[in-house]
Specification:
heterodimer, A: 302 residues, alpha+beta, B: 53 residues, mainly alpha, 2 helices
Chain lengths: 302, 53
């Protein structure tokens, strides 16, 4: 940092003039360049060098921070899209041979980071499609939206809870705040299409309006509030009733506000449609989106 | 610091510029692919789950 860029080699012409030198560039014999500077000027040089060092350090740090922003919003997306593409392809290949990563019953036994279902949200556009992976640990979330281990699976009674990144890392839930009450969320598994509908009052567009269990469409909570992914969200100790259609939830969590981890944005939805896929043979199913599901895009105005 | 590096780069101006670009690329790559991925989980950003799950 404290290099002597201008240190000691250039003197004002008057220094040489007194020794009788005709030009600035020619040092006279009596005044070699290595001559120590007067104490006052030496202090000045040191201060200047220190200030220049501090300045360069600050500019460098600023550039590093800028580069970190580039990393967060761009570079992580490149890796995440690649990882997402891999889990998506793996899931499609498994489905093509009739292999379902989801267990027939219960919620356990799926390896972390394995694709389990496809997610479509008409409100976020026709090209919005992500493969949900098992697990909400950092490594799994870099591949795509991650299912909280132990919570309900798609279509099961209870709460199918999914976490997703808001900025960078593929940013599946970047626009989670665009969801309105009544918006549809489509979850595709090997055997079925599930349509969840965002809670809240669709007529008044009030996301805070509670359903029969007191669950709102959207809430902003402290990161410690894991009550939002309970089997009946926000209701400690409540046991969901398989016979009650209101007890089939889906919850999505992401960070809030953008770029921070201060709070979490939570969107709750309830299962409104279950459509079994048509069988191709004993183990595989027709995977084209049926007209009634496609109609949801038109309904969302996209 | 930068002048110190610049003075120690060998060759003519064009060669020096090429070396500078290479140095910048190397430092950027080190930051983007080694330092940032390592440091990021420790920063209070981009945590999306509740209760650290």
């Amino acid at each position: 940092m404290t290099d002597g860029e201008y240190g000691g080699h250039h003197r004002p012409a008057s220094d040489y003039a007194e020794a009788g030198a005709p030009t600035v560039m020619t040092a006279p014999a009596g005044a070699p360049l290595g001559r120590p500077l007067p104490p006052r000027r030496r202090v000045g040089e040191t201060i200047r060098a220190v200030l220049r060092g501090i300045g360069q350090t600050l500019v460098t740090l600023g550039l590093v921070v800028l580069l970190f922003v580039v990393y967060e919003v761009w570079v992580t997306n490149i890796f995440a899209h690649e990882a997402q593409h891999k889990v998506h392809t793996a899931l499609e290949n498994a489905w093509a041979v009739g292999v379902d990563p989801l267990p027939g019953s219960g919620t356990s036994g799926i390896p972390l980071g394995t694709g389990i279902a496809n997610l479509y949200i008409p409100r976020l556009g026709r090209d919005y499609a992500f493969t949900i992976v098992e697990g909400s640990d950092d490594a799994s979330l870099e591949k795509g939206p991650g299912h909280y281990v132990g919570t309900a699976l798609p279509g099961q009674v209870g709460d199918f809870a999914v976490a997703g990144h808001r900025v960078g890392k593929g940013e599946p839930f970047l626009n989670l705040d665009h969801l309105q009450p009544g918006d549809t969320i489509i979850v595709e598994t090997l055997k079925a299409w599930y349509v969840y509908t965002v809670l809240g009052n669709a007529k008044t567009a009030n996301l805070a309006a509670p359903d029969v269990n007191g669950v709102p469409g959207r809430e902003i909570v402290d990161p410690s509030q894991n009550r939002v992914i309970l089997p009946v969200p926000d209701k400690l100790g409540a046991v969901p009733d398989p016979k009650n259609p209101a007890d089939y939830y889906m919850t999505m969590t992401t960070c809030h506000p953008k770029f921070t981890a201060k709070q979490r944005m939570i969107v709750h939805a309830v299962l409104t449609t279950k459509l079994l896929k048509v069988k191709v043979n004993a183990t595989t199913y027709v995977s084209t989106m049926p007209p009634s599901i496609q109609a949801l895009y038109t309904a969302a105005g996209v | 610091m930068y002048t110190w590096i610049w003075r120690r780069l060998p060759g003519a101006l064009a060669l020096k510029l090429v070396q500078v670009l290479l140095l910048v690329a190397a430092v950027s790559a080190l930051l983007l692919f080694v330092v940032f991925p390592w440091i990021e989980p420790h920063l209070p950003i981009n945590h999306v789950t509740v209760n650290g799950q």
